[in-house]
Write the structure tokens for this entry.
Amino acid sequence: MTRQQLVEQIQQKQSYLCVGLDTDLTKIPKHLQSHPDAIYEFNKAIIDATLPHCVSYKINTAFYEAMGLKGWEAMERTVNYIPDTHFKIADAKRGDIGNTSTQYARAFFEAMNFDAVTVAPYMGEDSVRPFLEYEGKWAIVLGLTSNKGASDFELKQLVSSNGEEHLRAEFLYERVLRTVAKWGTPDNLMFVVGATQPEEFINIRSIIPDHFLLVPGVGAQGGSLKDISEKAMNNDCGLLVNASRAVIYASGKEDFATEAKAIAEQYQFEMKSYLC
Ligand SMILES: O=c1ccn([C@@H]2O[C@H](COP(=O)(O)O)[C@@H](O)[C@H]2O)c(=O)[nH]1
């Protein structure tokens, strides 16, 4: 999906919600757990219910990989079920030497029909580049993540080498944004920014004004949709805000899909107010 198509979807739907399909067999409703295709059946019901309220789905591959072959099959069937109107993200956090990243890119962009893959930037340009070489596909690089451990490396200040002592030394995540932004364009590169890092949103936008941000951390992790929307939206919206557990586990009973729809609709309603 191109940037223009994504922006059109956001405008049409008046939503920048990404529903996270972090589907865990132990957390889905009891009546589905014994179904031979439980994960796929659950995902299908969630997708049918939330489709009008979101523009994207994010499949966190860990939940599927953990189930072995059956999990990979459920992932593939799920991604094929999502219509092409919706932006399909493999949250796989890949990245390796170029020769290996090329195979990861093939796995998600050729063997499977994802629009984007999340990528860890630690191994540098050759590890990210293979994900940027597909027309209409995207790398979503980890910038400032939503977890507590973001302070272990991402929020560490680098020792200044330019002699500008009056300036605060750069955070590692800022260096990542500035450097990685040169490897791609706002048409094939997004960044992950956690909704739990509100004090950094304005700074992030000053460094990468045009890129889309994939924002996990609202809902179960307590981040604020209002904060991210007011501080980091750009002229194209520029945001995909993810909620996984808050939507898919809105109810643990037979009404799970109806309740997921209701939560997705609430997010869409709030998003509408920030878009106008
Ligand atoms: O910084 C990050 C990067 C990725 N994630 C992923 O997003 C979802 C969040 O799930 P919730 O249930 O809405 O909390 C999940 O797949 C994470 O692995 C993140 O949370 N933070």
